[in-house]
């Protein structure tokens, strides 16, 4: 019994050290500091900004769907860049403070009723670009977390099959691991080109990578 208690204490100490290290890294992060100064809700804004500056995804007048939008930094970037005349619908399981020019739907992307709300909001209008920075709640178990990430990516692809117009683009976050190559093949079947992006604002130790699928096939 005493061995279990001692082990539990060690685990707590290790977890506290890890948490403190993450907080220190986060507070001192140049992108976090820059986001505060420039008024972005998180450092993730710079990921989309860098990708868009390179690949020219966002244009005035576009219809864009932002999946996994909270706290709203991608919506902030996209809303500015599709104005004037653009439309942006954002969705997340978590609440999100209003962003000017953005329609927000709160709910679980796995939920059919939530997907219906998103479909209803589109009112038959096809989408020019689907953005997904979705990530599941991490369990710390690699195989479980990877499977959850891939499910979200597959759901995003299914949404694109139904609502993304021919010639439209999709940008989605994934982790390299089980199911990654299968997802790549599925994207290559539905889109003309597929590229990988790892923006500078994505931490080097992070396994995340962004798949940019362009020009959906008719």
Descriptive account of the structure:
- The structure is a single chain.
- The chain has 218 residues and is an alpha/beta fold.
- It contains seven helices and seven strands.
- Strands 3-2-1-4-5-7-6 form a seven-stranded mixed beta sheet, with helices on both faces.
- Strand 1, helix 4 and strand 2 (87-92) form a beta-alpha-beta unit.
- Helix 6 packs parallel to helix 7.
Q: For the residues shown, what is the average pLDDT?
A: 89
CATH architecture of the largest domain: 3-Layer(aba) Sandwich
The name of the CATH topology of the largest domain is Rossmann fold
Largest sheet data: 7 strands, mixed
Structural Rg: 19 Å
What portion of residues is helical?
Answer: 40-55%
What's the order of the H and E elements? HHHEHEEHEHEHEE
How many individual β-strands?
Answer: 7
**What gap, in angstroms, lies between the N and C termini?**
64 Å
Q: Compute the number of structural domains.
A: 2
Strand order of the largest sheet: 3-2-1-4-5-7-6
């Amino acid at each position: 019994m005493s061995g279990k208690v001692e082990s539990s204490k060690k685990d707590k100490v290790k977890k506290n050290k890890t948490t403190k290290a993450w907080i220190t890294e986060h507070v001192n992060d140049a992108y976090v500091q820059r986001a505060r100064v420039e008024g972005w809700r998180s450092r993730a804004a710079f990921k989309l900004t860098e990708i868009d500056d390179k690949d020219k995804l966002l244009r005035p007048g576009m219809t864009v769907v932002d999946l996994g939008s909270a706290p709203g930094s991608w919506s902030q970037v996209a809303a500015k860049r599709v104005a004037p005349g653009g439309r942006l619908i954002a969705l997340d399981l978590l609440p999100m403070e209003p962003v000017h020019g953005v329609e927000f739907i709160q709910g679980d992307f796995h939920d059919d009723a939530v997907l219906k709300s998103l479909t209803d909001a589109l009112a038959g209008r096809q989408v020019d670009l689907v953005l997904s920075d979705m990530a599941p709640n991490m369990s710390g178990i690699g195989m479980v977390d990877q499977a959850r990430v891939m499910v979200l990516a597959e759901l995003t692809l299914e949404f694109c099959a139904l609502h993304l117009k021919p010639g439209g683009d999709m940008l989605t976050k994934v982790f390299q691991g089980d199911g990654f190559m299968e997802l790549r093949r599925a994207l290559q079947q539905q889109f003309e080109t597929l590229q990988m992006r790892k923006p500078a604002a994505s931490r080097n130790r992070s396994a995340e990578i962004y798949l940019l699928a362009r020009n959906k096939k008719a």
